Amino acid sequence: MSDEFHKPVKFPSRIFEGFLGGKDPAESLRVAHETAHALLSRVRGDPDPDVVKRLVHYTDEHGIDAIAELWAPALPKTLPGALWRIYLVRVLIRQNPTETSFLFQRGVDVTTTIDPVIAGAQLPTGPAEIIELADQILRGAFEGDFADALERAAAFCRVEAAGCASVADDVDPSAPERATELTTRASRFAKTGDELGASARLWRSDSLD
Prior knowledge:
Layout: H1 3-6, H2 13-21, H3 25-45, H4 49-56, H5 58-62, H6 65-71, H7 79-95, H8 97-110, H9 115-119, H10 127-143, H11 146-171, H12 176-204
Organism: Gryllotalpicola reticulitermitis
Keywords: DNA-directed RNA polymerase, Transcription
Protein name: DNA-directed RNA polymerase subunit beta
């Protein structure tokens, strides 16, 4: 991670010393929790728009690997686990916004829940709108109600899962391998949505550590 990026968002040096030097899983998890809490508390305490912008677009320049190494091992229903999933959802959207927006719009068309409203994407949802949604959700984690950001991300995942499942049904007779891939993706999105929703409830009860 570059000095330029971390200059306005400083963490105690002991956090990174422990991370860089430690192979112990317990130590890695401790660092994951400490960095997640430090990041949210410091950015939300002084929400400089330039800092928030750099945090939102960090993976565009540096990739997801650094964040994954830091937070991916954390349990889903924890603060670092929740932050990791929000970042991961954004990366997945931006990797293929055309397909993602198509599947999301299909999910909007077939779902009977209020998840499309909670997710908050502009309708109809094309590539530009789905990228904007991804940025809004991650920005909201630093600027707004963190539970709202988690709930929007969870709703996005559930709508995307519905879209994947619907398209899988359509293509199954002619492209069973594609149908299997979409069904697997639907399951993963549904699981991630459940985890993000649970994290939102824990945050509202002041229990997301």
